[in-house]
Amino acid sequence: MAICPRCRQELVDNQVDEFSVAVCQPCHGVFVRHADLVSILDRSWRAIPAATAEKAEFVAPENWQHEPLLRCPKCVAPLEKYGYMGLAAIQIDRCDRCESVWLDAAELENMVVALARSNYRSEKSLRREWDASRDIASVGMVGMAPRSLREGQRNAFRSLIRLLE
Ligand SMILES: [Zn+2]
Ligand SMILES: [Zn+2]
């Protein structure tokens, strides 16, 4: 049995895909294993359009530094606070002993949006690097490369294909 650290109600087990999460019905807080949360976030962030993620603003709740520590819904140890992706606006409460986190209402949603923004940004910069390297190639590197270099690239490509088979 797990108890909501805010309203002391009993949490109700719910399923998200194959993961079990405990939900507080009055306050919509969620208690979830850290590893499961990572998988859930990983599967969810693409549902947020890039433009929406980029526009999102995360506002830290007033006085968040002075909030009393919450206790773990399961083992009642004090929960440790940390800002998701370094964002003070998304305060996650973690129990190391239970390897679980407590998320207040809307925190899960904010995490998905924050992760989407960060992932879209790194995809964009990867694409820029990729385009830049193709530009160099089209400027004539392929044509000018000595035969031995081209041969080496072809061999590397072949062993890569073999690896992937
Ligand atoms: Zn609650
Ligand atoms: Zn605990």
What does this protein look like?
By secondary structure, the protein is of the alpha+beta class. The protein has one domain. The protein has four helices and six strands; from the N terminus they run βββααβββαα. It has a six-stranded antiparallel beta sheet with strand order 1-2-3-6-5-4, with helices on one face. Strand 2 and strand 3 form a beta hairpin. It is elongated and about 60 Å long. The C terminus is likely disordered. The structure holds zinc ion (2 copies).
What is the element layout, followed by pairings?
Elements: E1 12-16, E2 19-23, E3 30-33, H1 34-44, H2 50-55, E4 80-83, E5 91-95, E6 100-103, H3 107-144, H4 147-164
Antiparallel strand pairs: 1-2, 2-3, 3-6, 4-5, 5-6
